[in-house]
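Tutorial handout. Part one gives the primary structure; part two gives the three-dimensional structure as tokens.
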Amino acid sequence: MWVAALRLTDFRSYESAEVELDTGVTTFVGQNGQGKTNLVEAIAYVSVLGSHRVATDAPLVRAGSDRAVIGVDVVRDDRRVLVEIEINPGKANRARLNRSPVPRAREVLGLLRTVVFAPEDLALVKGDPSDRRRFLDELLVQRTPRLQGVRTDYERILKQRNALLKSASAARRADPSEVARTLEVWDEQLASTGGELVAARVALLEDLRPHLQQAYALIAGGPDAVSSADATVEYLSALGTDTESSSDREVWRERLMEGITRRRRDELDRGVTLVGPHRDDMVLSLGGLPAKGFASHGESWSIALGLRLASLDVLRDDGEEPVLILDDVFAELDAPRRRRLGERVAAGTQVLLTAAVAEDIPPELAGRRLTVTRGRVDHE
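Part two.
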């Protein structure tokens, strides 16, 4: 799998752009603010329908425009497919395959798989649980695109249930039995949909864990080093139960129902849903200690990079090589880590890099170079 061409209309700083790409390593070189990261961000957006830099779509549309369009030519099994995404902030995004509209944008998920490592990934170690949940869910959707529908359904159910809880105080005084009956309907939907999502996350971490250990050992200490501080990852449920290792959706549905019942009074008092995958986390540890708060800056970078390399391996295990994007990360890595990273990924089908300084790119990743200057892309 690889991207043969990228076309942009009113995306970020680009009024229009068209870039032909190839297999192997391609580096976009340019000073900060010239638009190189915007190019790889657009490619990655198509794979998950979201940006690795911002949480909403509005910043992706060029100032003064109502929408942005990303088009990529994806080559899979010697077949070329044009995927186009129309980004409409505040409205539903649209998608086309080979210029034919599809009913929902999420139907293009799975056609392009990417793994992105960027400076923002330090939040996977040092940031909030929401950053780690997003990492898990985006990787889930790339592996199993139908889970995007599960995520969407869960968010809709959660929103409706929260709205009911907020108004429940006055409603309870009027007719508590009616409130209870209405909540029961949403309880069952939340537990069923949430149970499927949590079970999928737990199963994903089971697959990710051994790859993370190997990747961290390689990046932090080299292939021959014996790591005295293994990197591990575990799922942490807000339920506080001992079922974190279960990937059975029915087990999680039952546990969520039990948790909802147990926290009913608290939820009614606070007017918010306190049980469900939207409150869970994944815990990264190094040598048995939580990475958040204990890992050094260099160790945190290595764990974050290890997570992305583990993601690459998990997607590869599914039978298809994803596009690897390394966005402006080499300036943050010392020379040995750069070299080990270069050796690790150089053989990928397509590796896209960005760098402000060409000398930051390790020799192992020498390849085609494109210069980006004020939104213009030129061959060196």
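Part three, for discussion. Confidence is low (pLDDT under 50) at residues 224-228. The radius of gyration is 22 Å.
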